[in-house]
Amino acid sequence: MSSPWARAVFSHRICTGIFRGRLGELISELAGPWQAAQESRRRARRGHQRQRVAGAGPGHELVFTDRVIATLVVLRFQLPHAALAVFYGVDRSTITRAVQEIRPLLAARGFAVPGHPGLRLHTLADVFAYAAAEGVTLRADGTEVQVRRPRPGRPGRRAFVSGKRRQNTKKAAVITDGNGATLWTGAFRPGRQHDQTALKTEGIGDLLQRYPQVQALVDAGYRGLARQFPDQVTAPPLPPAKDAPPDETARWQTSRKDQSSQRICVEHANAEHKQWRTLQRYTGRREYYEQTHLAVASLVSDRAAHRGSPASQPCTASELARVL
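^ thats the sequence. predicted structure below, dont judge the formating
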């Protein structure tokens, strides 16, 4: 049985990144999917249905509540599994197994919607349907996280991002509303791939055609998308020529600052994601990066959704359900 004082300490908001009240709701939300996954795994191992009543047999060395808390601590601080195992009085492999069980459940939760408890967005198509239903202007931006460079001879070793430091990174696209609430994160690509290319491969062009009423604010990296959809996508204005008159330069600076002030909320959302150490510099195995990023983004979206509702008047839950 795990140490009770470890649960008392690590369940604090500083360690998990969420309040204890919300932590209880999260544990209740994940309990059902976790139990279903456990039963499926056991049945596959046995090759037949269970022959004893539920709960029979040896108990878990680390109960489900502690498994969730330990996973949150790992995501929050990227604490070594062996160090966390010392606090809980279990073997390192027990913590590793707990993280491998809980992390995919967090990643599959989707993203919370401000003003609509219980509704979560999972795909880019969901985001566009939600924006069309509520009249939300989307903000899109790319973010990158330094990851371990693969060993010589392994795939991806040359996938560098351009720049002086030549870091090996993974990129992701982030979409928020006007209040900085994360609505979607995805389009994970190697750092060398351009932000706009990654988002186009996710089908954003088709979605812009399908939802012509949806507006989006982007940075200069998506200028090609703004040229393709000038009535929907707004990028920063092109700078004037070097010999342009002062009044033209002043108008450009004013327009650029205005567009930047409307789009800055997505930068704040990216910064909120990187309050979690795993997204500052990811030192885990590369195949688990996307799952880790989605898990953190889903937790951040919960906190952002509770801060307030979007500026537009929300539609009813039945209307959103019909759209999504």
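DSSP finds 13 helices and seven strands in the chain.
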